[in-house]
Amino acid sequence: MPTAPTSEQERSTRGGVPSARNRAPSSVSAFIAEPKRWLAVSTLVLVAGLAWTFRSVVPAGGTTPGQGPSPRVGFAAPDFTLDVLGGGELTLSDLRGKAVVVNLWASWCPPCRAEMPALERVYEANRDRGLEIVALNTTFQDSEGAAAEFVQEFGLTFPVVLDRAGEASRTYQLRALPTTFFIDKGGIIREVVLGGPMSETTIQTTIEGLLSGE
């Protein structure tokens, strides 16, 4: 969810090994000192680096948007199954056919507290249009008791799921709280918002595209 000379140099000097300043130039140093040889070595390293970079690139066919799960815009939302606060389980893929907002939050997070009422209002206004909101509590860095008090305080009516082990948060590469994923009816992520709080207008505007299928 910022000396003294170190031992290695001191030990080497005390043990009788000459320091770098007093050492005679090595064969490697002499080699590098010759411009033509240095240019040849530099060119070879550059070519090898480019070849490795090219080899390491994942083929375009393997990263086509929508083809594989990834917590990025244009890719299928990674699936998860988590316990719901109050009982039962929720599997994200079971919500296909609905516009889904997955909001990662914690009870101690001020921006989460600030934006949750807006999420609740948008949910109440659009649930009959096919909107589902899943509030994914980062329970591994929060607590079930605090989450339950939070839900009661804000009168939340959408599902609240508990990420006790942090597995879903890691899958979604959680870097900030809150983090919100807007997922279309086909299960593809269309928008990601890091941080908050989001305004009610921002949330409503974003889900309009999901609900209309645009």
Describe the structure.
It is a single chain. This protein is α/β, with parallel strands linked by helices and 214 residues long. The chain has 2 domains: 7-56, no CATH class; 81-212, Glutaredoxin, CATH 3.40.30.10. It contains 7 helices and 7 strands. The protein has helices spanning 7-14, 27-33, 35-56, 110-126, 144-154, 167-171, 200-212; strands at residues 81-84, 89-91, 99-105, 131-137, 160-162, 179-183, 189-194. The protein has a 7-stranded mixed sheet, covered by helices on one side. Helix 5 (144-154) links the parallel strand 4 and strand 5. It is globular and about 75 Å long. The two termini are 34 Å apart.
Highlighted features:
Glutaredoxin, alpha/beta, seven-stranded mixed sheet, disordered N terminus, 16% strand, 214 residues, 7 strands
